[in-house]
């Protein structure tokens, strides 16, 4: 079994266990045993339980970026990318929901995932052709994190097979972001009044010369 297959198998096992018994009860050894994987190799590949989530986040990014849209507006491209990312989460829905429920009681993991999400949203912007360098680029990243957080809350409650509510929430959030002058199009003035998933205001207008 190559490393990629090993990792995929252990991640799927861990999230399946989380979906039935909660994320707090999952350990790397328990996930390895449930999947019939050797513990020594599991320890080598995943030194901590948080490493499982970070690896899953990277996996979701990889699946999303395999088919990067080249046509359409920036908003269209971002919509396509983020929906693909939700499709990746949907495959492990119950496990991801269990992880989300545990985060208020695990601030260290919550911070790690926040940083991972920030990196992911930077990748999504760059894949859509949006510059992310400098202060304005950082504001765009924070704005897309707010968009993702809004849509993520809808996804957590969306039990439809085609993710109708999630797509509607994402479309609405991107529309609001698009109305912030220049945030997506890269024009000179940017004004974003949205909140990150933890309620932080994104702040006052920023300008780029």
Strand order of the largest sheet: 1-2
Number of domains: 1
Q: Which class of secondary structure composition applies to the elements?
A: mainly alpha
The CATH topology is: Tetracycline Repressor, domain 2
- How much is the radius of gyration in Å? 18 Å
Number of strands: 2
The CATH fourth-level homologous superfamily:
Tetracycline Repressor, domain 2
Describe the structure.
This protein has helices spanning 3-21, 28-35, 39-45, 49-65, 74-90, 93-102, 107-127, 134-157, 164-179; strands at 189-190, 206-207. The protein is mostly helical. It has one domain: Tetracycline Repressor, domain 2, CATH 1.10.357. The chain has a two-stranded antiparallel ribbon. Helix 1 (3-21) crosses helix 4, helix 5 packs antiparallel against helix 9 and helix 8 (134-157) runs antiparallel to helix 9 (164-179). It is globular and about 50 Å long. Residues 187-209 have low confidence and may be disordered.
Q: What's the quick description here?
A:
The protein has 209 residues and is an all-alpha fold. The protein has helices at 3-21, 28-35, 39-45, 49-65, 74-90, 93-102, 107-127, 134-157, 164-179, and strands spanning 189-190, 206-207. It has a single domain (3-207), classed as Tetracycline Repressor, domain 2, CATH 1.10.357.10.
């Amino acid at each position: 079994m190559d490393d990629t297959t090993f990792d995929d198998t252990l991640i799927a096992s861990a999230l399946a266990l989380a979906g039935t018994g909660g994320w707090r009860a999952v350990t790397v050894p328990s996930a390895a045993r449930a999947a019939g994987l050797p513990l020594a190799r599991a320890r080598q590949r995943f030194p901590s339980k948080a490493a499982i989530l970070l690896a899953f986040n990277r996996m979701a990014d990889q699946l999303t970026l395999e088919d990067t849209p080249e046509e359409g507006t920036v908003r269209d491209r971002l919509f396509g990318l983020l929906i693909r990312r939700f499709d990746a989460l949907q495959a492990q829905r119950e496990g991801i929901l269990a992880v989300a429920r545990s985060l208020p009681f695990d601030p260290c993991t919550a911070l790690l995932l926040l940083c991972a999400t920030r990196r992911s949203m930077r990748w999504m912007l760059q894949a859509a052709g949006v510059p992310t360098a400098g202060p304005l680029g950082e504001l765009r990243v924070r704005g897309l994190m707010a968009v993702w957080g809004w849509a993520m809350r809808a996804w957590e409650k969306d039990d439809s097979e085609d993710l109708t509510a999630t797509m509607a929430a994402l479309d609405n959030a991107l529309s609001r972001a698009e109305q912030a002058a220049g945030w997506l199009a890269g024009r000179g003035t940017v004004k974003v009044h949205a909140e990150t998933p933890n309620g932080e205001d994104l702040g006052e207008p920023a300008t780029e010369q």
